Amino acid sequence: MKENLVETLKQGLLLGTLLLLCSLSVLWLAAPEEIGPVWSLFPAVLFGYVAAGCLLHLLRGRAARLDSSFFRGAAALAWCYIFLFCLFFLAQQIPRSIQVMFLTSTVVLLLLWEAEYRYLKSVAKDLNSGAAGRILLIDLEEKPGTPEEFFAVLETYCQKSSIALEYVKKDIPATVRLDGRLHTVALTESYMYGGPGWSLEIQEIL
Q1: Residue 173 contacts by C-beta under 8 Å, 6 or more apart in sequence?
Q2: pLDDT (tens digit per residue) in 99-132
Q3: Residue 34 · residue 97 · CB < 8 Å
Q4: What is the pLDDT of residues 129-157, one digit of tens each?
Q5: Residues near 155 by Cβ (< 8 Å), separated by ≥ 6?
Q6: Which of 25, 106, 121, 133 could form a disulfide with 204 if both were Cys (CB 3.0 to 4.6 A apart)?
Q7: pTM (two decimals)
Q8: Which residues contact 28 (CB under 8 A, 6 or more apart)?
């Protein structure tokens, strides 16, 4: 629990600081006369951005639990652009400085999400076309803290997918038989907009 809280604060600080720097840069270029009031309230603005970064990190983890095609992949990206259109419409009703910073943050966030989506899509394509055998990546909400949690994720996936699981070497990485075919199961790390992301990599042994 404590480790998750530290990770959320760290990723929230990273994302919030990035969005704040981009917002201030655009505000300074687009409306330099509006930047004075923002500087006078800088501690509050910084706190707000870090809090928003933490909230976005938490929502990102919760979104992975939504078992619906309406909130995955390209569909999720489409929802983001619909949300952005609504924000542009509503932004006409707020002060200029807040408008510029808010819309800049939203655009940067959407660009980060799209870059992450394209990166993961490219990685999955490269892995699945490898000559060493088929590879499946199972995204994890957080890094398994113990070997038991690692095996529990694998067992839950096999149970949901009606796959017969047999351990050949119960370790990390593990060697298993899935429906009679030999596979290795490893824990892999990749870096995305919010920091490191963890996956189970299941590779068939030919």
Answers
A1: 184, 185, 186, 187
A2: 788 888 888 887 887 787 777 666 666 555 544 4
A3: yes
A4: 544 456 787 878 778 888 898 899 899 98
A5: 165
A6: 133
A7: 0.50
A8: 35
